[in-house]
Amino acid sequence: MPQDQILTDTERKKSRVLPAYSLHLDFVRGLAALVVFYGHLHLIVYGHTNAASSLHKSDPTSHPADATGLGHAAVVVFFVLSGYLVGGSVLRDLKRNAFSWPKYALRRVARLWTVLIPVLVLGAIIDSLSLHFYSSTQIFTGGEFSRHVTGFPGIGVFLHYLFFLQTITHFAPVAFGSNGALWSLSCEFWYYALFPLIAVCLFSPRTSKAVRIGLGILAIIGLWFVGSRIALYFPLWCLGVVAYLIPPRVPQSWLKPVNLLLLLQFLAVLYILRSKAIGALRADMVLAVSFTLFLYGILHLTGPARTSLYSRLAHGLSFPSYTLYASHIPMAIFLAAFTEATFPQLFGHKVVVTALLFVLVYLYAGIQYLLFERNTDYFRRHVETLIFRQRAEQREKAGATPVETYAK
């Protein structure tokens, strides 16, 4: 089935010929990050008074950062894509009997921390500079994000976000300065942790029944621990896994009209959800199902992708998308406050200011990507080599021969 061809970031970078669906998923991921970025930037520059209505008409304050009404929808798209890519890779490895708990945990944590740690440190520094120099600007006095900036975050707050506790309802909510976008990283981390427990329980017949029951109980405890906000959105993430599991059924001759129809239904759902009063969770579920249908259609496009302007654009948007999502708010606030304080006449032209800040913040995120996220695999391999070398040495000291050691 084509879904078995899930490619890692490293494989996509090295591969000369990519399947067309991988290219389209890159474009969707990059576009979703841009939508979130623009929505937050619009809110920072224009404030609430001129912001468009929320995606959820019944509760317009449930997502105050959603200036365009599409930012939260983009996060839902991220969840479904993550379920397909990460959850699908877990099922693929289980099918091949190649799943390793230590390696899986190391890859997921390396992927998250390589970006998150610099984002936390740089974000705290930038927020402190903004507060020190520009606290009297309108950006701070009327800003949705800047109201959480009270000084350099303490070590407790840093650890709170480092270990992805910010969205767990059992813990008191703590803001890491202005960076409100980090809430979803907590969801992602716990989905990464919970899904393998369920997957091994359901899809690993080689594992003993007692272990599978134990993992199932552990998953239930984990869902209780993370609380309602994360647990209720876990099924949305799992819809990406559903897209992985369903075999392709659309005939090749029907692919173009079917994919066009699925794209139109997704756009129609977006429009309807912005026009009708509906509860937030229900709206997100409808949106996730709609995007999953669109994703299922895309996964049929298994032919080789052609090198073109579109392919270069898809790669260019996709690779720094995680860094852009996680890092843009503090720098956008700093630059907006700097512009307001230093060039008040220019700040009156908000369209120009928004365009200028869009470019500058994107460049800032791009530099962070080149320094950190691009080197994720290098950091991971270095730590992986260190950890597993130590384990091999310990086994050798315990009496195992080198052949026995590496065979385990």
Automatic annotation (TrEMBL):
<feature type="transmembrane region" description="Helical">
    <location>
        <begin position="213"/>
        <end position="246"/>
    </location>
</feature>
<dbReference type="GO" id="GO:0016020">
    <property type="term" value="C:membrane"/>
</dbReference>
<feature type="transmembrane region" description="Helical">
    <location>
        <begin position="21"/>
        <end position="49"/>
    </location>
</feature>
<feature type="transmembrane region" description="Helical">
    <location>
        <begin position="258"/>
        <end position="274"/>
    </location>
</feature>
<feature type="transmembrane region" description="Helical">
    <location>
        <begin position="189"/>
        <end position="207"/>
    </location>
</feature>
<dbReference type="InterPro" id="IPR002656">
    <property type="entry name" value="Acyl_transf_3_dom"/>
</dbReference>
<feature type="transmembrane region" description="Helical">
    <location>
        <begin position="154"/>
        <end position="177"/>
    </location>
</feature>
<feature type="transmembrane region" description="Helical">
    <location>
        <begin position="322"/>
        <end position="339"/>
    </location>
</feature>
<keyword id="KW-0812">Transmembrane</keyword>
<protein>
    <submittedName>
        <fullName>Peptidoglycan/LPS O-acetylase OafA/YrhL</fullName>
    </submittedName>
</protein>
<keyword id="KW-1133">Transmembrane helix</keyword>
<dbReference type="InterPro" id="IPR050879">
    <property type="entry name" value="Acyltransferase_3"/>
</dbReference>
<feature type="transmembrane region" description="Helical">
    <location>
        <begin position="280"/>
        <end position="301"/>
    </location>
</feature>
<dbReference type="GO" id="GO:0016747">
    <property type="term" value="F:acyltransferase activity, transferring groups other than amino-acyl groups"/>
</dbReference>
<feature type="transmembrane region" description="Helical">
    <location>
        <begin position="112"/>
        <end position="134"/>
    </location>
</feature>
<keyword id="KW-0472">Membrane</keyword>
<feature type="transmembrane region" description="Helical">
    <location>
        <begin position="69"/>
        <end position="91"/>
    </location>
</feature>
<dbReference type="Pfam" id="PF01757">
    <property type="entry name" value="Acyl_transf_3"/>
</dbReference>
<dbReference type="GO" id="GO:0000271">
    <property type="term" value="P:polysaccharide biosynthetic process"/>
</dbReference>
<feature type="transmembrane region" description="Helical">
    <location>
        <begin position="351"/>
        <end position="372"/>
    </location>
</feature>
<feature type="domain" description="Acyltransferase 3">
    <location>
        <begin position="25"/>
        <end position="361"/>
    </location>
</feature>
